[in-house]
């Protein structure tokens, strides 16, 4: 039997920050974008600061944390992604988000495009996860859609995994879509069976998200950034949030397509 639950929509604001930084202007404002998407119904805000601050800056991370704290008790979650360098860890512990997502990005990475080899990095990840959880922060590991590679996540102390859905997003509508989709579903099932909470992100959009959500009703969170920003150019912040919330309720409209968990 499928357990029905809400899948949270977290909006990654990196591309808003990137546009601002390209002209060294105070706009578009990351804080105002966060307020707008929250007011429209988003469940979370995601920020991914990188060492070169080419989009989200350390100042943005702190200002988002302060803005969310001033809002008082709220269901809106704050998720900070990034490579767990000493500087990043210190910033995360200062900001105290609800969730920290550890990503194996080298400093010059264009974007996140692969997950952790958990076994090869076991001692390192155990130390980082222990430090962050000791500060009261939930920890998620960015992982490939490979059941064998993600299963050790619980052994190193992670609370959740975030599936790297880029290959599925790129294959959508092409010959390889079903194969990549099956890999995602198998990984989602492995995470559930290992007792891990499940997040997903990368190249999910209004077209490919409904199929994924219908097949994985235990999905806790999706993080949408690039596609959200592109859609907001057409639909505005509020219209885009509403469209993604509808996409996450696709199983309600077409229950015959839901895939029951084994």
Itemize the secondary structure elements and their pairings:
Layout: E1 8-12, H1 14-22, H2 30-39, E2 44-47, H3 58-70, E3 77-82, H4 86-95, E4 99-102, H5 122-134, E5 138-143, H6 147-150, E6 160-164, H7 166-171, H8 177-193, E7 197-201, H9 209-215, E8 221-224, H10 226-248, H11 250-253
Parallel strand pairs: 1-2, 1-8, 2-3, 3-4, 4-5, 5-6, 6-7, 7-8
Helix pairs in contact: 3-4
Overall, the morphology is globular
The helix content is: 40-55%
Q: How confident overall, as mean pLDDT?
A: 91
What is the succession of H and E elements?
EHHEHEHEHEHEHHEHEHH
Number of helices: 11
CATH class: Alpha Beta
Radius of gyration: 17 Å
Would you identify the regions where 5 or more consecutive residues have pLDDT less than 50? 253-262
Q: What is the number of strand segments?
A: 8
CATH superfamily: Aldolase class I
Going by helix content, strand content and strand pairing, the class is alpha/beta
Count of the domains: 1
- Euclidean distance between termini CA atoms: 8 Å
> Major sheet, described briefly?
8 strands, parallel, barrel
CATH architecture: Alpha-Beta Barrel
Strand arrangement, major sheet: 1-2-3-4-5-6-7-8
Strand content: 5-15%
What is the CATH T-level topology? TIM Barrel
């Amino acid at each position: 039997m499928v357990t029905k639950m809400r899948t949270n929509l977290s909006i990654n604001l990196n591309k808003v920050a990137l546009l601002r930084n390209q002209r060294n202007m105070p706009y578009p404002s990351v804080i105002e974008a966060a307020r707008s998407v929250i007011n429209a119904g988003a469940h979370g805000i995601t920020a991914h600061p990188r060492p070169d601050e080419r989009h989200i800056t350390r100042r943005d991370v702190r200002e988002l944390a302060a803005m969310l704290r001033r809002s008082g008790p709220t269901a809106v979650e704050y998720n900070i992604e990034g490579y767990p360098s000493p500087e990043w860890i210190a910033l995360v512990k200062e900001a105290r988000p609800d969730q920290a997502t550890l990503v194996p990005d080298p400093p010059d990475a264009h974007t996140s495009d692969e997950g952790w080899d958990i076994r090869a990095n076991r001692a390192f990840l155990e130390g980082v996860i222990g430090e962050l959880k000791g500060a009261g922060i939930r920890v998620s590991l960015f992982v490939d859609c490979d059941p064998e590679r993600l299963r050790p996540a619980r052994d190193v102390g992670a609370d959740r995994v975030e599936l790297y859905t880029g290959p599925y997003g790129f294959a959508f509508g092409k010959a390889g879509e079903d194969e990549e989709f099956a890999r995602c579903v198998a990984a989602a099932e492995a995470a559930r069976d290992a007792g891990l909470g499940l997040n997903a992100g990368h190249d999910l959009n209004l077209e490919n998200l409904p199929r994924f959500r219908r097949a994985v009703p235990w999905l806790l969170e999706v993080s949408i950034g690039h596609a959200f920003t592109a859609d907001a150019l057409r639909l505005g912040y509020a219209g885009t949030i509403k469209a993604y919330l509808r996409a996450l309720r696709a199983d309600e409209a077409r229950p015959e397509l839901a895939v029951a968990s084994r």
